[in-house]
Structures are given as structure tokens and as C-alpha cells.
Amino acid sequence: MKTSITKTSHGGVLVTGGLGFIGSHLIRKLLDWHSGPIIVLDNLLEQVNGVNVELPEFNQEPRIRLIIRGLNDRDALRT
Is the distance from CB of 61 to CB of 32 less than 8 angstroms? Predict the structure, then answer.
């Protein structure tokens, strides 16, 4: 999954591919720059294929909502 960032209608930020190397570093910067919610969407496909995935301390951060799903999972995107 490629890393991308999109502003949500609720003033939050959606980061796809947020548990990869680039995405996790982007989220760390967003925690400094952005005061609103950050939604992290990742299907962990790279981890399944044997590539190391950053599993940062995001579950300790109340502003972050982590969703382990793919972009093609419409139900996950509606929540």
C-alpha cells in the first residue's frame, strides 16, 4: 500500500500505509504538527510478504485511530 495523506471532513487526517517505514515517520511528524485526530489505515500486506513493518507506539496515543484493513474494505472506510 502506498503512503498517502488526506484531510477528513471532521478536521482529522487519514494516512494510508501508515505502519510502513515512510507512513510511520509521517505520523510521528503529524503528532507534532497536527492537533486533531489521525486515522491510520494499513492492510499490513508488506508485513505478510516478509518486509519489516514499523509497529510504533501509536496505540498509546489517544489522537490516533488504527484500522488494520485495506482501501478496498468499504465497511472499514465508513466507520
Answer: no
